[in-house]
Amino acid sequence: MTALPSHPAVPPHVAESIERAHKRIDRHEERIQRIELDGATMAEWRKNTTETLKSIRSGITWLITLILGGLLAAVIKFVISGGLNGAQ
Fold first, then answer.
1. Is the C-alpha dihedral spanning 44, 45, 50, 51 positive or negative?
2. pLDDT of 13-49, one tens digit each?
3. Domain residues of the chain, as ranges?
4. pLDDT one-digit tens code per residue, 46-64
5. Any stretches that span the bilayer, and where are they (predicted)?
């Protein structure tokens, strides 16, 4: 930040006040940039986490389907082989 040129119409205490205000604005701009970067980072993390959870959910769905299919196949085999009457 460049210092304000001394001008006879601007008293020194006003120039100092303006300089302090500029420094505060600069600090606020830096904070806003950090917050925006953090927000973008979190948005990307949420996107990746959502995709991972969808993949896990899909895997669990297939696993449940396979287990239920196996149980159904076992019941059908049991019924075909004589069920509760046993093999005679």
1. positive
2. 899 999 999 999 999 999 999 999 999 999 999 999 9
3. 12-82
4. 999 999 999 999 999 999 9
5. 60-80
Tokens 């505060």 belong to 24
Q: Both tokens of residue 57?
A: 């959910």
Q: Per-residue DSSP letters for the chain?
A: -PPPPP-TTS-HHHHHHHHHHHHHHHHHHHHHHHHHHHHHHHHHHHHHHHHHHHHHHHHHHHHHHHHHHHHHHHHHHHHHTTGGG---
The amino acid sitting at 62 is: W
> Which phi and psi angles does 74 have, rounded to 5°?
-65, -40
